[in-house]
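#structure-requests
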Amino acid sequence: MKRRDFYKTTGALGLGLLAGKPAWSNNQGAIPEPGFFNEEAKKLPAREFDVLVAGGGTAGVICAIAAARQGAKTILVENKGYVGGIAVEGGTALHSFYNLWKAFPGVEKRQLVRGIPAEMVDRLTAMGGATGYAEMEKHFEYDSVCTAIDTELYKLNAHEMLDEAGVYVCVNTLLAAAVVEGSVVKGAILESRSGREVIFAKSFVDCTGYADLAAHAGADFTEPNDYAVVNSMGLGNVDIEKYYKFLADRDAVHQLAYGVRSGEPGRIIRIGAEGSQGYPEEFIKGARKIGLSAISTTTQDNYLMFIKMNMKLDKSPTDRDTVAKAELELRKRMKKGVELFREHIPGFEKTFMTRTAPSLVIRRGRLISCDYDISHEDVINGVHFDDDVFVYGFHDMAPRLQVANGGSYGIPYRALCVKGLDNLYVSGMMITSDHRAHMSTRNTVSCMGQGQASGTAAALCALNGFNSRTLPYKTLRKALEKGGVYFEK
């Protein structure tokens, strides 16, 4: 989509699972066509920063910390009242800091993603909010480790790290527009209960997931709508050991990891079954209807952190009215999911809903055109580039699709540079057009790695007078290595 077009218009059971992210059609009925109104021009309060990061999610938190640690005056803009994004709203675990060594006997075990993302997990683990890097006992051809988190402590830890780095954090703040001159983004217009203001900066990074800043700035984009949306719920009062026995007695345990739970080591922290194996027929039928995915993780006794409801939309998740209907439908499905567990699965007899995401979660919204588009072959063949900014080894379609021989591939710097704009980066689920490759690059730990790379680059540009295409790679590489990023060449 071109900028003129934008402004003109301006589940699988995960039980491994039961196939089917059921389609749902948005029947809105008669909605009046909008007219037009000329908004009166007015002066806005203006402030200046070196780097503006839009979106305080999985990538954005790491991005802002990285920029601030380079010495850049950094602002982070987030429309919710907390930071953390997909990691605390839609995942089951953080995938993945390691290569897939367990699926390939004799392959060296390597922690591929280090630096600020690993520091965040280490801090969170020390405060009892994560399980570290627990090895998978089953289904290790999918992932060799499980990094489960406590969603609330993750939010706290992430915000504390931003504060310690000196980032100016604006939560409860909407990014409403961009100020652009030619190929240079000059500023972003923000809306909050304090009013409307403009923030000028030298470098910008879009980590919104929906690519809101990039779209406002006129970047070319498409909207593939190639994933189901999801809302996830936590379930309390769950007897996890009883649930495990139920699956084990039917030889149906497919995903399993042990780690620290409620402060005690050697406890189940990840559990799930493959497909419909082991589940009662009525549960299977009901789960298929609501797109329920039952694979989950936990850091606490009697609690499963993420039970997902998947639903495919007939329009892009950037369509407000489609999403409004979907929000209601997903919450109806979550209620039905609780009822299914209570009625059919031992260990859930008195379970109840303890948490939900505040809004539906996407796996992709807008896809931004960047200087390089990572291909499926790049990922599965373990390709590295002359401008790698970190390395990664997880694929969400494993074991059907894997990075070759338990290795890694590189994310090139060019893949984060927005085509046609000189000082704007994107990080997270907005890159990579090939759905198969995107099933790797969109995952949480990849987004974290992208965040450290783009935040570091944005700061170096802002502080040294470079733009995204004149920044010397050697300068970026040196800064990333100093920041703890691991490279394999």
